[in-house]
Design a protein that fits this description.
The complex is a heterodimer of chains A (83) and B (729). Chain A is α+β, with helices and mostly antiparallel strands and 83 residues long. Helices cover 14% and strands 36% of the residues of chain A. Chain A has a single domain, classed as Roll (SH3 type barrels), CATH 2.30.30.90. Helix content of chain B is 63%, strand content 8%. Chains A and B meet through helix 1, strand 2 and strand 4 of A and helix 4, helix 12, helix 14, helix 17 and strand 12 of B.
Chain lengths: 83, 729
């Protein structure tokens, strides 16, 4: 269940989310899927650089940094804090 | 491909095969600890070359166990067999055995990072499907253990269809012996069994394989179905009959529909990976180490950015504080050695060639080494510790505003010490356009060789008055640094808008955990860098230095020697003791100046004087500038010679001479507008053979060094022209 408009770009620092759908039209987004950003993956927003862009995510223990313009293409359902 | 060229490849394969018993490709994702493991397996028995026609380095080493010698090829890191970047294309081509000059691998050593099983298994599953003998090295670093990840190795082996899995701790070397034996015995190993994770694709591929003209590897066909008829798949396409080739697109349509094949590939394989992970990996509560604390702190935007500047300041300080004394020693050693050659062999063409040509030529190569090695030591340490990626991440936004990406920051900052290691450090930039734009911008950064020229001219001609709380001289120096930065940024912007226009590359940077670099790996990499510099750049610098020597030495004038002798005798009548020695020295300097004036270099200076006259330069300045094209710091020595104060005059004497220099009509040569123009010329002009040689090497074409040289020289000329004409009117 994709929650209204939540994407990787809207996750708060320290918040986790599970990817629900990916907007695959952009070839650059397809390359990000090769790195493991696919439906079902749990992603945590770990940090961001000054100004909030790019953002750093944790994906199964490894750090990956994305620009906001790309993070927006991944719809997520946020995992409630404390899970 | 024609028949004859195929035969040639086979011949080279035979020569490779004769030396070693088998060739094994080392494959892994970037940052999987692949290179560290490769270095531990092969030690110093490795060669660094290039893949044909590209700038990607080819690392080959020999693993000796008992009597068997196994060739290991360390491939560039790749996330998938669907190649995207140049490095990935090379890795995939070698794996499939279609890289010219590299033997088809007899087996694969897959490096799987225990702290990043998710991406690692995605690749390993694709490798298993190749039906080659395969051994998995599970690199456990202390980071993985401390972050609380436990991997069930037996279970992992079962999930991977029984391929051997060897846990290795790279820092301590535990497990290395077993892995060594396994790799050496790989040729006896049965090929890995396929794991079918995507039955529809396998079915489609087998239908096509049945129709093929020649036997084709299944995995290659599957890649063809996923990636489509791209240039990389040309060889596979040629093996298919016309019918299958035509049907390819319709098969792909029915397989994927509207979904991009790459996306489907990722979705299906990562779903399999998640299932495997649930079975083999258990996470304990995270361990609180210094590493997590440091990472946490540096992850906050502001401390992280401040931390980056502190790190760069330390690197800079080290480069100047450590390299300068060594460089002074080298400098002194070269001139002493050169002087002693002249003393031993007497005056003459040969001793001048050895003393002033060859020895100072070699010296001008070696003098770069301390800075390059120290800078590279830091770059390698930063890279291996995982900090480089974080620096790129932190600076991405700022660099993006000038059309580059975060990865350009380290090469740019390094170029303030020396553009040579800066340009060599652009290898971390995956996008070619970004990389070349960075290479074009890097030489504008004020390198340490510009500093002596700036210092001389500023001290001689800029008055030391206070402007606000700053000294005018300091302000001018600061202005020159700033000028370099702005010129570099504008150049990068210009390049990205014109010759290097193209889509912004996706910025997906893997941010590895901080880890302790392995000293052996650091040492091996440093040695490789030094060799590359000495062989590739060193030869060019050396040749150019000898050419400049010849231009300044020949032709010898017949009239100068008797004239010196006459003046010496005259002096000996009237003077004695210390005064006579000083007079001898003066006569000698005058003679050197006279010799320089009628040498090819001096004539060239006089010949091009009209070109530089609008800039306010006389023939002496012009000759010095011409001599400085191979290495800008030479200018001071040449100015010393043409102004007859000797090539090792102290700064005070030389700047006195410069201040007093006049045109034939008595007007001063070094006016403030002219000096400012000269400074601007130095700030821009690419007077460095080493940089040109390295640009040539890193871009693999003469095109970019030629463009860089023309571009920077024109800007320097125009800047100097503008400054002089506006200032003098």
């Amino acid at each position: 269940m994709a929650i209204n408009g939540s994407t990787l770009a809207t996750l708060k620092r320290g918040q986790k989310g599970i990817i629900q759908s990916v907007d695959v039209a952009d070839p650059q987004v397809q390359r990000l899927m090769v790195l493991g950003l696919v439906e079902g993956a749990e992603v945590e927003h770990a940090s961001s650089a000054i100004g909030g862009d790019p953002m750093e995510f944790r994906l199964f223990g490894c750090g990956i940094s994305l620009r906001q313009e790309h993070a927006r293409h991944f719809k997520v359902s946020p995992v409630a804090v404390g899970d | 491909m024609t028949k004859s060229s195929e035969t040639r490849i086979h011949a080279s394969e035979i020569t490779v095969a004769r030396r070693t018993d088998a060739s094994i490709a080392v494959v892994g994702t970037p940052n999987s600890g692949k290179s560290t493991l490769f270095n531990r397996l092969t030690g110093l028995k490795q060669r660094i070359g290039n893949y044909p026609g590209v700038t990607v380095e080819r690392h080959v080493g020999i693993l000796k166990v008992g009597d068997t010698a196994t060739e290991l090829v360390d491939l560039p890191g790749t996330h998938s067999l669907s190649a995207h970047s140049l490095e990935e294309h090379i890795a995939v081509d070698v794996i499939f055995g279609r890289m010219q000059g590299t033997q088809k691998p007899d087996g694969l050593l897959a490096v799987l990072d225990a702290s990043n099983l998710y991406q690692g298994l995605f690749l390993v599953q694709q490798l298993i499907d190749l039906k080659l003998p395969l051994v998995v090295a599970l690199t456990m670093n202390d980071a993985a253990e401390q972050s609380g990840i436990n991997v069930d190795v037996n279970r992992l082996r079962d999930e991977l269809g029984g391929v051997p899995v060897y846990p290795v701790v790279a820092t301590t070397g535990s497990g290395l012996e077993d892995l060594r034996n396994a790799v050496a015995g790989m040729s006896q190993l049965a090929p890995a069994k396929r794991i079918v994770v995507w039955p529809e694709l396998t079915e489609a591929a087998s239908a096509m394989a049945a129709d093929a003209d020649e036997p084709i590897r299944f995995a290659e066909l599957e890649r063809l179905l996923i990636d489509g008829a791209t240039a990389a798949n040309r060889e596979i396409l040629e093996k298919l009959d016309a019918n299958s080739r035509e049907r390819l697109e319709s098969i792909r349509d029915s397989l994927f529909g509207l979904e991009p094949p790459i996306a489907r590939d990722a979705r299906i394989r990562y779903a399999w990976v998640r299932d495997v992970l649930r079975n083999v990996q258990s996470s304990a509560p995270p361990f609180f180490s210094w590493r997590t604390r440091v990472t946490d702190f540096l992850n906050r935007p502001v401390p992280g950015t401040i931390g980056l500047f502190v790190v760069m300041a330390i690197v800079f300080q080290a480069v100047f504080a450590w390299a300068t004394p060594i460089m002074d020693v080298i400098d002194a050693a070269t001139s002493t050695l050169g002087g002693s050659v002249v003393q031993t062999f007497g005056e003459g063409a040969l001793s001048s060639l050895i003393g002033d040509g060859i020895i100072s030529g070699v010296g001008s190569v070696v003098i770069f080494l301390p800075q390059i090695l120290i800078l590279f030591l830091f770059i390698i340490l930063l890279e291996d510790s995982g900090y480089l990626a974080r620096a790129a991440y932190l600076m991405d936004r700022a660099m993006r505003s000038v059309g580059l990406s975060g990865q350009s920051i380290i090469p740019m900052i390094s170029s303030f010490a020396c553009a040579v290691p800066g340009i060599m450090a652009t290898r971390v930039i995956p996008n070619r356009r970004d990389r070349i734009a960075t290479i074009m911008a890097a030489p504008f950064m004020t390198c340490s060789a510009r500093l002596p020229v700036y210092a001389l001219l500023i001290a001689a001609f800029v008055p030391a008055e206070q402007v606000g709380f700053m000294n005018l001289q300091g302000l001018v120096l600061f202005g020159l640094y700033l000028f370099g930065i702005v010129a570099g940024i504008l150049t990068a912007l210009l390049m990205r808008q014109t010759a290097l226009r193209g889509p912004k590359p996706p910025f997906a940077l893997m941010l590895p955990e901080f880890r302790r670099p392995n000293l052996q790996t650091v040492f091996i990499q440093l040695l490789g860098r030094a060799k590359v510099f000495l062989y590739r750049a060193g030869t060019v610098i050396f040749v150019v230095a000898v050419i400049v020597w010849a231009l300044a030495y020949y032709p010898r004038s017949e009239e100068i020697a008797p004239e010196i002798e006459r003046q010496r005798q005259l002096a000996a009548y009237t003077l004695s003791g210390r005064e006579l020695a000083a007079e001898y020295k003066r006569i000698e300097n005058e003679a050197a100046a006279a010799q320089m004036e009628q040498s090819w270099l001096g004539r060239a200076g006089q010949f091009v004087e009209p070109v530089f006259a609008p800039l306010g330069w006389d023939w002496r300045v012009s000759s010095a500038v011409i001599a400085g094209f191979p290495a800008r710091e030479v200018v001071i020595a040449v100015l010393g010679t043409v102004y007859a104060v000797g090539d090792e005059a102290d700064e005070g004497t030389l700047s006195g001479r410069l201040q007093a220099a006049t045109w034939p009509d008595g007007a001063r040569v070094f006016t403030l507008p002219m000096v400012i123009g000269l400074l601007i010329f130095y700030a821009c002009c690419l007077q460095c053979a080493a940089t040109l040689a390295v640009i040539r090497r890193e871009t693999n074409t003469w095109r970019w060094p030629v463009i860089a040289w023309l571009y920077m020289t024109s800007i320097g000329y125009l800047g100097a022209l503008l400054a002089f004409q506006l200032g003098s009117s």
